[in-house]
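Alpha/beta hydrolase
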Amino acid sequence: MKYFRNIITAAMLITVSSVVFSQVKPLDPLLSEYQYPFEVHFINLKSQNNTLKMAYMDVKPQKPNGKVIMLLHGKNFNGAYWERTAKDLSAKGFRVIIPDQIGFGKSSKPHSYQFSFSQLAENTRAILDELNIEKTIVLGHSMGGMVAVRFTLLYPGKVQKLVLENPIGLEDYKTFASYQTIDQAYQSELKNTAETYKNYQLKFYYDNKWKEEYQPWLDLIAGWTLHKDYPQVAWNAALTSDMIYNQPVCYEFKNIKTPTLLIIGTRDRTAIGKDRAPKELQPKMGQYQELGKKTQREIAGSRLVELENVGHLPHIEVYPKFFEALYGFVQ
């Protein structure tokens, strides 16, 4: 009897999984058929012998408070996942700028491009220049945190305040994990599916608890894997993985003079290359409950808000707590 119950349970799980994954629709590399929550604008960039288009959203408040905040997305995301944050900040009077980095979202996916955090920071500055914005608050999540750090170090006069939400790069992954070539990373990216992405998000983002509101952020990246041009996206993903591994920012935290807030979900264990690290080192990687405190000590005068039992995505998983911490710092 127990045997049959297990078979029935497994069949139900497969059925539920099939329903979830059947919602995923193919998406082209520029997300042409996906509607962002706000109007999308583009700037033209001449970069590294490429003619590129960089997408961004510019959310203007009805009653401006005179402040601008720029929201920088993570590696497995694009600007769309800032919708709720942008709406609430706009309601508080902030002008909100939300770029899609080159290689992500609706922006160009170049084949020949040397990705670096300095280049991404330069591209981001070009949007502010286009909009005649002299100063901004910068909020970076995950990989966006590494972009935000580099942006702040390169252009400190443009940054009023810096907010880092579960940024990656709080440790040097090269000291743990072996190197993989870009070609190897590309082959790995080509193997991604809706199921592999969901399993990864469950493990690092949501503590194996899936909710309906998480589905849109899975659909966006999973939809790419179903499109015939997915290799174009996978190649850019491999290039940016190489950038993250080879260009640590953690050694330069001591150089940040900008008022800084760290919002850290302490359950997060995200670490690039963890699967390539020796078994005995893997448990030591991505220990955000320790990395947050360590980073606060290194950034002079910074504040730390720890969100207990929260994973890699506080602004999705526990939005009210996230926004309370954010607004308390930027208002």
